Amino acid sequence: MTFVLKEILVRQSKAAIVGAGIVGLAHAWSAAERGCQVTVFERNSRASGASIRNFGMIWPIGQPHGENYETAMLSRTRWLRLSTEAGLWVNPCGSIHLAHRPDEWIVLQQFRERAEFLGIACELLTPEEVQRRTPAANFHGLLGGLYSPTECCVNPREATRSIPAWLAAKYGVTFHFETHIASVESIGDDMCGRTNVRVTTSLGDCEHFERAIICCGADMQSLFPNVLASSDMKRCKLQMMSVRGHGTGWTLGPHLASGLTLRHYRNFEICPGIEDLRKRISDETPELDHFGIHVMASQNNHGDIILGDSHEYGADIEPFDKASVDELMLRELRKILQLPDWTVAEHWHGFYAKHPTLPVFEATPEPGIHLCTGTGGAGMTMSFGLAERMWDRWTDSNPFSFPFSFPTSFRWNKD
Questions:
Q1: Per residue in 173-229, pLDDT tens?
Q2: Which of 34, 124, 180, 412 is 20–30 Å from 280 (CA)?
Q3: pTM
Q4: What does residue 157 show for φ and ψ, rounded to 5 degrees?
Q5: 112 by DSSP, 3-state: which?
Q6: According to the CATH classification, is domain 12-92+152-229+358-398 in 3.50.50.60?
Q7: How far, in Å, CA of 155 to CA of 158, rounded?
Q8: Hey, what CATH class is 95-149+234-354 in?
Q9: Distances in Å between the alpha carbon of 101 and those of 232, 296, 304, 336?
Q10: DSSP 3-state assignment of 203?
């Protein structure tokens, strides 16, 4: 007896991404590479949140060793892929932490001693070696620097707004801009046993998916507010600025960071001298702690020097920017940098959500629905790696949640 089955269609798995910031784009890319049919919903006409209001730093050196650092390095690899495949400007410029105070130099030395055993690439530089790598370091009082080769620079405005076109062209990802999502809900399994997630726009249009990833950024009230309210995340406001450097041929070289930065990033907590450094800063300049100021500089592909930044949290956040905060940042930046022109061309602020201990906040409030936010100030650094880790975990744990290849028709012969 012969049984013939013809044209058995296997429907491609569908994934919805809510939010076209860098976290949402990272998930869209990872899902599309795994064969998903991806639709991205974005309420604005283009990305305009934290994903474009940052230094453009891919900053593995700021992540604690272990899984966080490895995830940052995975992100770096994917950024470099984008440079080749999508034609994005990605500059593997590296970074230098500058030490102008003895306690800063002690912490850098302690970190270098430990980094060798942790697999973190870095080296100590003399003041003369710093000068050979960058014309921007203030040589007066400079004790040395810590160079790391792993950091990259991107132009966040251009990258975040051009990646959608590349995803659409290469993977067929669908983007719905200026589309506000009213609800995302799991409504049981479909006839094939797949999770059925209904996404409804504010206009009442509905579409069904097997999985939805909510990447709301700092807007924690749009969808699943109760979950986010109990997450321990805080909203953070930062102030930044830029000075024009195009047309002069002057280049910053690597990203530059002051000793103030050592107290901000958790990777330096392995250094015994960090508490003395923190106490000295708190005693001498409590205003910097009050506004969470630590200063850094990067240069984009147009020559603009991006400077910042500050951190205000929760109830301290006001919609009004403070000129005094900009002045404090410039005061500290002038201590470590010498720029050809200090004329500020742009001021801006941004908001992001930050979890006190986790590199990202994840939750699954309903089957097939995942919240992914709270990358803090490391969204550009971590998002691509985090998305890869998450999609690996989701697809490995449920082999029926992602597409698998079957022929569209086959013949079963039985005698």
A1: 999 999 999 999 999 887 677 889 999 999 999 999 999 999 987 666 778 888 888
A2: 124
A3: 0.91
A4: -65, -45
A5: helix
A6: yes
A7: 6
A8: alpha beta
A9: 35, 16, 28, 11
A10: coil
